[in-house]
Amino acid sequence: WKIAQDWQSVCYTLRQGQQSLLSADRNERMVEAASSKGGPLKLPIHMEDLELDDRKVIQRMEMEAQEKHVKLNMDPVLDFQVLIGLASLEQQIDWLGRMVKRERRRLEEVASRQYA
Fold first, then answer.
1. Fewer CB atoms < 10 Å away: N or C end of the chain?
2. How far apart are the C-alpha atoms of 41 and 31, rounded to whole Å?
3. 3-state class of 76 per DSSP?
4. Between these two residues, 57 and 42, which has the higher pLDDT value?
C-alpha cells in the first residue's frame, strides 16, 4: 500500500500544482480586467464586478483547466477507489501498474513534443 499512497500523493501534487497555476492566471486576468475600467483599483476583486466578457474569459479558463486535468487521468480519488475495491493483491498490483504506465506514456509524449 505504500506505493499506492506515494502514487496518490503524486496525483494530489499534480492537481494542486494545476490549481495554483490556474489561480495565478485567474487572478492576473481579474486584475487586468478590473484595471481596464480606469480609476482606483477596488480590492478584493469579485467576479460579479467584472464585465460580462471578462467573466466569460475567466470561466473559459477554468473549464479548460478542468478538462486538461481530466485528460491527464491522474485523479487522486477515482483510480484509488477502484484499487481498494479489487478482490486480490494481484489485481491491485496490475491496476497500480496500469496507472503508472499511463502516466509514463503521457510524460514520454510531453518530452517527445518538447524535443521535436
1. C
2. 8
3. coil
4. 57
Note the pTM of the prediction, 2 decimals. Answer: 0.72
- Rounded alpha-carbon distances, angstroms, from residue 95 to 13, 59, 100: 20, 35, 9
Query: Is the CB of residue 22 less than 8 Å from the CB of residue 62?
Result: yes
H/E segment holding residue 19: helix 2-35
- The per-residue pLDDT for range 13-26, each reduced to its tens digit, is 989 999 999 999 99
**pLDDT of res. 23:** 95
Q: In the 8-state DSSP scheme, what is residue 87?
A: S
Q: Is 115 helix (H, G, I), strand (E, B) or coil?
A: coil
Q: Write the CB contacts of 75 (distance below 8 Å, at least 6 apart in sequence).
A: 11, 15
Say what the alpha-carbon torsion angle 106, 17, 95, 67 is, to the nearest 10 degrees. -70
* 3-state SS assignment for residue 23: helix
